[in-house]
Design brief:
By secondary structure, the chain is an alpha+beta fold. The chain contains 33 helices and twelve strands.
């Protein structure tokens, strides 16, 4: 058989192909020749054939038939064969295929080889694709190489140890003795990989983290290394753009961030070096900016001094002036995370942040918009709203919905006056009315209704806003409602805030009729206009007959909703005309009612704060004793009440009102009375300050919590409570935390149980799980288990992380017996 062509010739031949089909034909022909060579057990050219096969694999063609040939090359005594064999194993094999287990013994032999380069190949392969079984078998060899004096092998062994720990976390303690002397190494490669290994151990084990903080005194060692890097002179071996080994500096800063988090002593030990790095690092090159960014993240995550935090925010402020878009985006994202804790420091850079709204890059615009809304407060609301309204005018359509919602929320929270509030919302509706959220119309109507002194001004402004332009449907709906309510004020010209306009009754009806017949009007908008015309029949005197005629016309409309309204209004004119003035009188002042009672409980990281709940005074006509009995009846018969948090003992004993406030979704009539409830036999664990019977047993009654899921940085814990009123109901509170460096967004938790159970899933506290375990999401699950069977559950998790949509399924079968027996 002739000798196969060399790899270089194959590459040259494939590159001459002019079409995809021609390339595919060449590949298939060569694959056939390689298969024939493999079948003939041709040892001479096996290495060359596998190398060509790897090149085809890199081009995207199937190369799985070369897996066993890779194992044969690994078993060879020649270094050139081993090199290609191990490379092929890393590319073509993974732990899902049982074939990889066949190479365990070869790797073990090569880890003990006399040549360091063969040992290095084995370490690289194990660190790249070693399964948990391989890691268990070979961890001892890796640990032995980690203690060797050869720096070439130590750095590879450290990285291999990281992979072993990720696959088999319980082997972590095996590598602990070997880590003691790693940071004393002068070789930067060993230092770098050692820091990576220590970081992995600290992230995966709280016990290891505490050990390195207290026993190993790791922080002073890292501070010493970082100081030497900053103060050292020019070293051509490690210099990158004038900075000594920036990769090692970044790794050390990340490890310091983990060690200093929630630890006062460690944070204090690293404050000085962080200040040195922040002030001495050159910012003209991207390398220096990378180090500064890591320094800022470390300062913000540890318990640093206030002056150091201001310095970090000023660094981010300088990043905003950088020409590099990536640096500006990173700065805006970091400022958005810190604005809640260091609000005043971030406010100093408000003008620069607002300027970023004019950036051409859409991602920078979005971050700048989110940060701008976070900076709005009572002192700067006028100026910030002016800038954001200007941004709303000129921004792309995909920004308008979020920007409009943000302006609505900020205006509601910080409005200096009702007129300013109304003007701002009307400006939004005029500019981006088609993009506002669904509740914008009722919220503005409520605001206008409650601002009695602004009725004439508002109806005049809205009338002028919709003259000849019906494109913004929410604006037309609000204008129709206001004209129907306050049309008499519009016609009489009673506006004092601005120069009144002269409008006749017929002109007002012309506008409303043109809305009814306009092609741009939605069905809901036509309903608003028809109702407004009907209301004007009691406010106008000269045009009642015209109104009757218009209403009667729409009694045969093809729009069922419009037809029903018109028929009912016609009936008012004919059969119930005596009731019409009373039915169509002006709306009273509306009270803002928040639906979904449990959402009114203020939450901080998923925990309620009972201190912020108000106790409502009782109406004078209610009897305290009877109302307390009614309350107990309601508590005894309801299985759908939300979980009530344990009330601190410092609360007054007569806190019946607070108990009712917590039961926001019970449809109670009347207000609670702070009177003691009738005496009930109480279990010994009841708090002294809460005499009434609790809905659920306290967690401390003996039901242990469990970890239902812990993967990819996402951890979900279950805690349990049992209902006193219905022992068959188990209430499970989930707490989701995130130990990674980035927030997990759009988090959705779903659960399913066997048919013998019934499950109710309440709304979560949030959809974003903050990074670095800085907060949690809580959600309540209620499970009805009438047959007292063992509880089993399947959960589905979906969320976005690092720009990717993540989804995972898991089964929870380790529920404690106390939760279901």
């Amino acid at each position: 058989m002739p000798a196969p062509i060399r790899l270089r010739e194959l590459i040259r031949t494939i590159r001459t192909a002019r079409t995809q089909a021609e390339e595919r034909e060449m590949i298939q022909k060569e694959c056939a020749a390689i298969r024939s060579s493999f079948r003939e057990e041709d040892n001479t050219y096996r290495c060359r054939n596998v190398a060509k096969l790897l090149y085809m694999h890199m081009l995207g063609y199937p190369a799985h038939f070369g897996q066993l040939e890779c194992l044969k090359l690994i078993a060879s005594q020649k270094f050139t064969d081993k090199r290609i064999g191990y490379l092929g194993a890393m590319l073509l094999l993974d732990e899902r295929q049982d074939v990889h287990l066949l190479m365990t013994n070869c790797i073990k032999n090569d880890l003990n080889h006399s040549t360091q380069y063969v040992q290095g190949l084995a370490l690289c392969t194990l660190g790249c694709m070693g399964s948990s079984e391989m890691c268990r078998d070979l961890a001892g060899e890796v640990e032995k190489l980690l203690k060797t004096s050869n720096s070439y092998l130590r750095k590879k062994a450290a990285l291999c140890a990281v992979h072993v720990i990720r696959k088999v976390p319980e082997l972590m303690e095996m590598f602990l003795p070997a880590t003691k002397n790693l940071l004393n190494e002068k070789n930067h490669g060993v230092l770098h990989t050692s820091v990576v290994l220590l970081t992995e151990m600290c992230e995966r084990s709280p016990d290891m983290l505490a050990h390195f903080r207290k026993n190993e005194k790791l922080v002073p060692q890292l501070v010493r290394i970082l100081k030497n890097l900053i103060m050292s002179g020019y070293s051509p071996e490690h210099d990158v753009s004038g900075i000594s080994d920036p990769f090692l500096q970044v790794r050390i800063l990340r490890l310091l961030r983990i060690l200093g988090r929630n630890d006062d002593d460690s944070s204090e030990a690293m404050n000085d070096i962080l200040a040195q790095v922040a002030t001495n690092t050159e910012t003209s090159k991207n390398v220096g900016n990378a180090i500064l960014y890591e320094t800022v993240l470390t300062i913000m995550d540890i318990k640093s001094e206030s002056g150091l935090r201001v310095l970090a925010i000023n660094i981010l402020g300088r990043f905003l002036l950088n020409n590099d878009k990536n640096i500006r985006y990173v700065a805006l994202t970091s400022l958005l995370k810190t604005v809640q804790t260091d609000h005043n420091a971030v406010q100093r850079h408000r003008s620069t942040i607002v300027d970023c709204l004019k950036d051409l890059d859409v991602s920078i615009k979005r971050r700048a918009m989110e940060l701008s809304f976070a900076l709005v407060n009572g002192n700067n609301v006028r100026g910030m709203m002016k800038e954001l309204l200007y941004f709303l005018d000129s921004c792309e359509p995909e920004f308008k919905a979020d920007c409009a919602s943000g302006i609505f929320l900020a205006a509601e929270k910080y409005a200096p006056s009702k007129r300013w509030h109304i003007d701002t919302i009307m400006r939004v509706l005029t500019t981006a009315g088609s993009y506002v959220r669904d509740d914008a119309v009722p919220n503005l109507i409520q605001l206008i209704t409650n601002s009695v002194e602004m009725h004439a001004y508002t109806v005049q402004r809205l009338y002028k806003a919709i003259l000849g332009d019906y494109s913004q449907q929410p604006l037309v709906q609000v204008a129709s409602w206001c004209i129907g309510e306050y049309g008499d004020l519009l016609v009489s010209g009673q506006c004092e805030e601005e120069e009144p306009i002269q409008v006749t009754e017929d002109e007002v009806l012309d506008i409303l009729e043109s809305i009814l017949i306009s092609n741009m009007s939605a069905s809901v908008t036509r309903g608003y206009a028809l109702t407004a015309i009907m209301k004007l029949s009691t406010r106008f005197t000269c045009t009642v007959n015209r109104i009757k005629k218009v209403v009667s016309i729409y009694g045969s409309s093809i729009d069922v909703e419009l037809q029903q309204r018109a028929v009912e209004y016609n009936a008012l004119f004919k059969k119930y005309d005596h009731m019409r003035p009373a039915l169509l009188e002006r709306m009273p002042v509306m009270e803002k009612v928040t639906t979904n009672g449990p959402t009114e409980i203020v939450q901080t990281n998923g925990e309620t704060e009972p201190a912020v709940l108000e106790t409502k005074p009782p109406p004078s006509g209610l009897q305290p004793g009877s109302q307390a009995n009614d309350l107990l009846d309601l508590l005894g018969g309801s299985d759908i009440t939300p979980v009530i948090p344990t009330v601190p003992t410092s609360k007054p004993a007569s806190a019946g009102g607070e108990l009712l406030d917590l039961l926001g979704d019970l449809n109670l009539t009347g207000s609670p009375v702070p009177a003691p409830a009738p005496q009930i036999s109480q279990p010994p664990f009841l708090l002294d300050g809460l005499p009434s019977q609790p809905l659920f047993n306290d967690i401390a009654a003996g039901i242990p919590s469990i970890t239902a899921y812990n993967k990819n940085g996402l951890k979900i814990d279950f805690t349990f409570e049992r209902s006193n009123t219905n022992p068959s109901v188990t209430v499970i509170t989930i707490q989701a935390s995130n130990s990674t460096e980035l927030d997990m967004t759009d988090f959705v938790f779903q659960a399913a149980v066997p048919k013998t159970f019934q499950l109710q899933l309440l709304s979560p506290s949030s959809s974003v799980i903050p990074a670095f375990n800085s907060g949690t999401i809580t959600q309540v699950i209620k499970v009805l288990n009438p047959q007292k069977q063992q509880l089993r559950m399947r959960i589905k998790l979906t969320y976005n992380h690092k720009g990717s949509a993540m989804q995972d399924l898991a089964e929870v079968n380790n529920f404690p017996p106390q939760s279901w027996q």
